[in-house]
Amino acid sequence: MSSKKDGGAYGAASSDTSFRKTWDRAEYAQRAADHDAKTKEEGKARYEAALAGKKYVRRASTPPDARETEARKSRLDVGSMVGKTQLVPAGSAVGKRGRGAGFYCENCDLTFKDNLQYVEHLNSKQHLVNTGQTGEVRRATVEEVRDRLAWLKRKRDEEKRDEVVDLGQRLEVAKEKEDREREEKRRKRNEKRRKTKDGMGVPQVEVENDGIIC
């Protein structure tokens, strides 16, 4: 038989409150502090929105690996399916949900019947969130703006130089281009000549009217 000194069936000391769950006071104190800070920040945002005459909308939490929204680097191909027949299994799509006949978005599993709805969906918050974007655009720096303006200026100057309306200017541009090509050929010929032993270059034999019956 167990003695009264043991106090428990397994030999451990017991009390009338040993069955209660214990809590980490430091952890819950930190949680309370974080909650208070978040509440104060939200209250400040509500106050600033009220002063500006706007309605405060609580933002959803952003994933830590979400990237900033960027412009599309390629054009949307909305004309490749014109005039083509597409086989779709029966019952594969219910409304817009699922893959059906039309423009299908794999990230959101939605199908749209026309390209306008498809483009609007690509710019929507739902699609941006499903593709891992925050929906916010990064603010460009002063150096990036200057580089962009310089690139646009160079591009405009090149287009103006190519688009010549006057016939005299066209002839002048064509002559300059021909002179540059002739100078490039002369430079390559001189380099090839310097590579030979005597510096005379590789002799080229040309036959007049070669292969032509006169």
The percent of residues in helical segments reads: 40-55%
With strands numbered from the N-terminus, the spatial order across the biggest sheet is 1-2
Low-confidence stretches: none
Structural class: mainly alpha
Distance between the termini: 132 Å
Radius of gyration equals 38 Å
Strand residue content = under 5%
| Shape estimate | elongated
Order of helices and strands: HEEHHHH
Organism: Aplosporella prunicola CBS 121167
Domain C2H2-type: 105-127
Region (Disordered): 55-75, 172-214
Biased composition (Basic and acidic residues): 65-75, 172-184
Could you give a short description of this structure?
With 214 residues, the chain is mostly helical. The chain has helices at 25-51, 115-122, 125-130, 142-162, 167-194; strands spanning 103-105, 110-112.
Commentary on this structure:
With 214 residues, the protein is an all-alpha fold. The protein has a domain at 142-196. The protein has 5 helices and 2 strands. It has helices spanning 25-51, 115-122, 125-130, 142-162, 167-194, and strands spanning 103-105, 110-112. Strands 1-2 form a two-stranded antiparallel ribbon. Strand 1 (103-105) and strand 2 (110-112) form a beta hairpin. The longest helix is centred in the last third of the chain and has 28 residues, at 167-194. The chain is elongated. The mean pLDDT is 76.
Which features would summarize this protein structure in a list?
two-stranded antiparallel ribbon, mainly alpha, about 210 residues, zinc, nucleus, single chain, about 40% helix, 5 helices, 2 strands
